[in-house]
Each structure stands twice: as structure tokens, then as C-alpha cells.
Amino acid sequence: MSAPEANEFALVFAGDERYARGIAVAMHSTLSHLSAAFRPEIYVLGNDLSESSRVRLLKVVKAVSRSDELRWMQIPSERFGHLATINHLTPAAYTRLLIPEIVSRHIRRAVYLDADVMVRRDLSPLFTIELGDALVGGVRDFAITSTDHDWSGVRDRAHPTPYFNTGVLVMDLARWRSMGLAERALQYAAADGEPLPWADQDALNAVVESWHELDYQWNVQLNLFLAERPPPTNFTDRLYDQRWCIYRAGAILHFTGPPKPWSPWRTTPGTMSWVRTLMRTGWYSRREGLIWLIRWLGNRARSWLGATRRRWRAALIHRSSPASTPE
Predict the structure, then answer these.
(1) How do residues 234-263 score in pLDDT, each as one tens digit?
(2) pLDDT tens per residue, range 159-171
(3) C-alpha dist (Å) from residue 63 to 28, 32, 191, 262
(4) Beta strands in 65-217 (DSSP E)
(5) Contact assessment for residue 171 and residue 112, using Cβ atoms and an 8 Å cutoff
(6) Mean pLDDT of 290-314
(7) Which of 220, 200, 207, 212 is nearest to 143 (CA)?
């Protein structure tokens, strides 16, 4: 890719009111690490952000002196309002499919970030990385490694291909539009009336014929550290054995799965760093931040004490059971 020109790149965030604080952390952590050579346009997609949250997000951008402007983009929900979803997802999960149609036409590359990520390194290489013939770049999903995995919602299991996570995407917007990728993905999602387990992620993995695999560092999916050792495959074994190296080298931490880091019950590595970043964003006033933090830490302490008591109780029951008493 040639040297960057002004206003040819975009950073895109998306989420509803429930994820507003998450957007603040994703935005602040991205912009505070971004190379000064890049000044992308910043977009926030969402129809359910309150005016208060919009004001706070603008404060976040100003706090890192990148821009005084956020581009608020309304989502044409009629495009996917008819689609059924399951689990914790809503039809708005299909929002990112429409990014190439919604952002300004002079933008040629967009980097999309989910609202549950935290950036720890400069992500400007994603604006210039070569995608080759691919329309999109992403990181392979740490849990659903292939389209024929039991958890995959891709319907064709006869020709398995690697399955990518859509929490971090590098998008070639012109090619995406020319291939009609959004419409193809939406048609696939609606094809048999049954909801896709992972919504747009399943749809994209089904219709994208070629995607560029990014290094793990660009989307370290932290559910890897929550689960017991995953079912053995060459891919999951390699990930599990290198999990701490991958974590330490991670440029983007992705807090996949519930609970999210703003919940005091999240215990994966990186959670406290996420909370410290939230306190630096400018989302809260000093007083608001102190009140939120005290409540969060209090609930976390109560959760830890409860879990500790349960473990002690289980250990005592085990020791006193006849099966555990030596003859």
C-alpha cells in the first residue's frame, strides 16, 4: 500500500448504550497509542446511544487531542431488523456489515473494533498492511477454528475453511462494495429462517471466499484464559501452550464472552488494566469515577470472598466424606 494520504482511513466503533463505556475504552486506548502520522476519521455506529453518552465519547476523543469531531452514523435497521438472533446478540450485531456503505466514499480502508476491546500498541500497521486479493483481514477465532466446528453457524460443513473472529477487522471498502458483500451476507443470514449462532460473524465466514489472516497479537481473545484446556487440535494446542506469550505480546485484548470487563465478576488477565484505562478516558468526572470504582471493587471483593468460601466448603465436604478417609 502507498504512503498514507489525508483522510483515507477510518476507525470505526459500534455499540448500543450498554456498551458505551466499552466504546470509550476502545477509543481512548486506540487513539492514545496511534502513530502521529495517522489521523483517521472516527465513526461511531449505533442508534441507541443517549445524548449523555455521545457527549462523554466526544470528551474521550478530545482528551487524547486527536480530533474535535466524531461522526455519528445512524444504522438503517430496516436492513436487518427482520433477522432473528440467539444468545446475547440482537439484530444490531449485523451493523458492521454496513460500514462500507455508511462511511464516506473517500475512505479506502477502515479498521473496525468491537466495544469490548482494549488496545495496548500502535495499530497503524493495520492501515497499511497488504491484504492481497482479500476483502477483509482478521484473526482466526480462538474457539471456533474452522467453519465445520461444532460451534460454527456456517451451514456448509462439506468444505471446511479457517474461521475468523470479527471483533477486529481490516476492511478494503471499495472491494467490499464492488463485491456486494454486505447484501450477500445478509441474504445468507436470512436464507433458511433459522438464526445464525454468531450472527454476522457466521455470515461473513460463509460468504467471504478469501480473507487475510492477521497475527494473533491483533485480536487476543481472552476466553482462551477462562476455559479449561480446549479439545486437542494442532491449532488449539499451539495456542494453549503459548497463551502467556500471546497475551504479553497482544496489541489488542478482546474480552470475548460474558462477563465483560466492566462487570466485577470478570477475572481474566487484563481486566484491572481495562478498569485503569476507563478511569483515564475522561468518561467519568473524578467524583463519578471514584464512586464507580468503589462500587466495582466492593462487588469484586464480595464475589471473591463468596467463591473462596465455596471452595473451602467443598474441600471440607470432600475431606469428611467416607471416600476420602484413609483406612
Answers:
(1) 777 788 888 899 999 999 999 998 899 999
(2) 999 999 999 999 9
(3) 8, 9, 45, 21
(4) 71-73, 109-113, 117-119, 136-140, 164-172, 211-213
(5) yes
(6) 85
(7) 220
Write the CB contacts of 180 (distance below 8 Å, at least 6 apart in sequence). Answer: none
Q: By C-alpha distance, which of 16, 43, 39 is closest to 27?
A: 43
Report, as an integer, the average pLDDT of 312-323.
68
Domain boundaries along the sequence of the chain:
9-283, 293-327
Residue 322 has pLDDT above 80, yes or no: no
Check if the beta carbon of residue 253 is closer than 8 Å to that of residue 271: no
**Partners of 169 in beta bridges:** 112
Highest mean pLDDT among 83-92, 122-131, 140-149, 231-240 belongs to: 122-131
Cβ atoms of 91 and 85 closer than 8 Å = yes
C-alpha cell at 169: 477487522
Q: Can you give the three-state secondary structure of 264-300, one letter per residue?
A: CCCCCCCHHHHHHHHHHCCCCCHHHHHHHHHHHHHHH
Taking a C-beta distance cutoff of 8 angstroms, is the pair 164, 139 a contact? yes
Fold adopted by 9-283:
Spore Coat Polysaccharide Biosynthesis Protein SpsA; Chain A (3.90.550)
Q: What angle do CA 210, 212, 217 make, to 5 degrees?
A: 150
Please name the residues in contact with 313: beta carbons below 8 A apart, sequence gap of 6 or more. Answer: none
- Whether residue 100 has a cis bond before it, omega within 30° of 0: no
